[in-house]
Design brief:
By secondary structure, the protein is an all-alpha fold. It is built from five helices and no strands. The longest helix is centred in the middle third of the chain and has 27 residues.
Amino acid sequence: MSMNPENFRPRLDGGSQQYLDSAIRGASPAKLRLLLLQRAVDVAATLSRVWRNGQLLGSNEHSLTLLEILGELLSGVSGSKDVGEKKLCNQVADLYVFLTKHLVFAEQHSDADAIDEIRMVLEVESETWRAVCARELAPAKSVQGHPAVAGGLNFSA
């Protein structure tokens, strides 16, 4: 995943920007993914609102930012040798490809409802990663003798 702080946050001034930059640099890969998802949710909500107000119809800075974030999220999914993990990675990758296609279609029609659908999916994904981050804070436990592992998501990217 890219460490570009611009992907994680809206434009901020002064101390807030420095605080967020520091939080991004010190975040775990799972926390970075959560921050990226939260940013995607915010951008989708803004895009929907802008289109509903009849402003900046079609492709605009918000839709391009959302497209870039979806690309970042997709690039953070990697393969695995384990059959089950590989299947999960493929499903997650397919989800981001679908969301990207849905966004491109929505841009053609300035379809705020389609953007709301994308936002809702990203909110569910965000909640999932919130749970992953909460587990990171808890002591790692093994399940039936197997150590806790990250699976097929590329946490080193």
